[in-house]
């Protein structure tokens, strides 16, 4: 029995070490997205050891389970500090359109119902652009920075407010990211970027994935506050994303205790398994609320965030 318990325990212990020290490499990159499931699994050897009265194994299993809980559970609990509560309300939405196939009318309805002022889109194709236009997105968000592509690399930003500057940035991995600086009524300027690093789906993509995340703009500085929103192809259990957040961002969903709500894969109204779509906000921005919505004909769910940005000085 002792041998079986130790065999059950060892995988979780190794996983915890990899998670704590950011050791995900190669095929482990995708597997690490499932860390919350592994955290739940670590209770199995703990309970088995306690039931069998194998106290040494129980002590180790308990330490592993606690360690995994420390890594995973905080994102499911609201932060005491959600950022500034005084300022100007700004509501944003991001959706990966799955090669432009996502239901544009449903996206526009989410914009309308949520009083959304900024929409970020990824996997943005000419078809997706045309369908959003036909659904009336321009009536709600007339200011646009759009770079449609016929593959998964297209990107776009739609805004209620005029864009003070706008461009498109090319990732090393080949995808494009629309960027813009806007100034909501009564607010200081806000920098936006529709984020889409390369997916770590195979050996030829691992380096590009890591480079793309490393090249995302750091938070802080004396310039406009920043909001990065999109399909990051990474969860909070991936070290490169945590490193980006550590420059001075909040993950909006984790801030309000919704960091374990999955966003992918979510076909046919499914809820998904892992959380790879995020809204990251500069620490000078407050988070009021987050919601995640299924969108027909996309494998990603849309992420909505209600934020408080600094007022103009």
From TrEMBL:
GO terms for molecular function: endonuclease activity; exonuclease activity. Pfam families: Exo_endo_phos. Residues 93-300 form the Endonuclease/exonuclease/phosphatase domain. The keyword Cell inner membrane does not apply. The keyword Membrane applies. The chain crosses the membrane at residues 28-48, 55-77. The lineage of its organism: Bacteria, Bacillati, Actinomycetota, Actinomycetes, Micromonosporales. This is Uncharacterized conserved protein YafD, endonuclease/exonuclease/phosphatase (EEP) superfamily. Keywords: Endonuclease, Exonuclease, Hydrolase, Membrane, Nuclease, Transmembrane, Transmembrane helix. It comes from the Bacteria. InterPro entries: Endo/exonu/phosph_ase_sf (IPR036691), Endo/exonuclease/phosphatase (IPR005135).
């Amino acid at each position: 029995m002792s041998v079986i318990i130790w065999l059950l325990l060892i995988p979780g212990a190794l996983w915890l070490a990899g998670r704590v020290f950011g050791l995900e490499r190669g095929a482990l990159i995708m597997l690490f997205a499932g860390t919350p499931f592994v955290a739940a699994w670590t209770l199995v050897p703990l309970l088995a050891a306690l039931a069998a009265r194998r106290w040494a194994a129980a002590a180790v299993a308990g330490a592993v389970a606690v360690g995994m809980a420390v890594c995973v559970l905080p994102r499911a609990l609201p932060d005491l500090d959600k950022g500034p509560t005084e300022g100007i309300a700004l509501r944003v939405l991001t959706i990966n359109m799955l090669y432009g196939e996502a239901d544009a009318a449903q996206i526009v309805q989410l914009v309308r119902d949520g009083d959304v002022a900024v929409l970020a889109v990824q996997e943005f194709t000419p078809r997706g652009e045309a369908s959003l236009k036909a659904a009336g997105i321009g009536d709600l968000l007339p200011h646009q920075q759009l770079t449609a592509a016929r593959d998964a690399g297209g990107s776009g930003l739609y805004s209620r407010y005029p864009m003070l500057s706008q461009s498109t940035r090319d990732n090393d991995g080949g995808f494009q990211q629309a960027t813009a600086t806007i100034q909501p009524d009564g607010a200081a300027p806000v920098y936006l970027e529709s984020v889409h690093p390369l997916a770590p789906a195979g050996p030829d993509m691992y380096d590009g994935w890591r480079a793309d995340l490393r090249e995302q703009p750091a938070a802080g500085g004396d310039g406009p506050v920043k909001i990065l929103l999109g399909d990051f192809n990474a969860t909070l259990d991936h070290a490169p994303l945590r490193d980006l957040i550590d420059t001075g961002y909040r993950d909006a969903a984790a801030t309000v205790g919704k960091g374990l709500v999955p966003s992918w894969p979510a076909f046919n109204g499914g809820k998904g398994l892992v959380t790879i779509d995020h809204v990251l906000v500069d620490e000078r921005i407050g988070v009021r609320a987050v919601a995640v919505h299924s969108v027909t004909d996309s494998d990603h769910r849309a992420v909505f965030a209600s934020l408080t940005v600094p007022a103009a000085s």
